[in-house]
Amino acid sequence: MRQEHKLTSMKMIVLLSFLGVIPFYFEFFDYLLILNYQYEYQPKFRNSSFIYGSLIISFLSGMHWQKLINDENVKLLYLPMIPVILVWSSFFFIPEIFFKIIVIIGLIWCLLMDLLILRKLNQYWFLKLRAIVTFLAVAPLFVIFFV
Fold first, then answer.
1. Measuring CA to CA, how many Å separate 71 from each of 75, 114, 116, 118, 119?
2. Is 47 left (phi over 0), alpha (psi -120 to 50) or beta?
3. E strands within 11-143?
4. Which residue, 36, 58, 69, 81, is the most exposed by fewest CB within 10 angstroms?
5. What does the alpha-carbon distance between residue 145 and residue 142 come to, in Å, rounded to a whole number?
6. Exposed/middle/buried for 28, CB within 10 Å: 0-12, 13-18, 19+?
7. CA–CA distance from 24 to each of 20, 35, 62 (Å)?
8. Model's pTM, two decimal places?
């Protein structure tokens, strides 16, 4: 009975992780509509993917912080806060282009933190999932950034 619950929760984590990637594509699809209606269409989702990425970075960093606190690893407590501080300060105080770069770097930073923290737990399925989801999230951001 216990194995069934574990498998079900694993499926739920995978499903929710992939569903969480969908908002990263809103601005990309909005941009594709602009190409079709260049003079009539106003972008509705301008910077929404990057703001959503900032929220995801905040969420992931909070999870990393909680894990480090539970492990009583005080030496590394500052690491998860670096991307959060950089992302939100760049959102308010730095030009838009740097904000977008910092969001992309922040998502990759969170993946590296997962590799650092979760590697010890032997949850390789979750690390593989996080790598795939991070790639799927960063890909449209790169496209939007360079267009």
1. 11, 14, 13, 11, 13
2. left
3. none
4. 36
5. 5
6. middle
7. 8, 19, 20
8. 0.84
